[in-house]
Amino acid sequence: MTDKETGDRAETLALIVGSAAFLESLEQLRRARALRGHRPGISRDFWEQVSKLGWLSLRVPNEQGGIGLGIQELCVLSERLGACMAPEPVPEAICTAPFLSGTLLEDVMSGSLIVLPAWQERAGDLESKAPTVRLAQGKLIGSKKYVHMAEAAGGFVVTTSNGLQFVRKDAPGLSVLTTPLQDGGHFSELTFDNTPTEPIKGSFETVQEEITLGIAAYLLGVMRRAFAITKDYVTTRTQFDRSIGSFQVIQHRMVDLYIQIQLVSASIQQAAAILESSPSLAAAKQAVSRAKARASDVALLVTRQAVQLHGGIGYTDEADIGLFLRKAMALMNCYGSATAHRARYLTLVCAARGKL
Question: Where do runs of H (alpha helix) occur along the chain?
Answer without folding.
Answer: 3-19, 26-35, 44-52, 71-83, 90-96, 102-110, 204-236, 248-277, 281-309, 321-331, 338-352
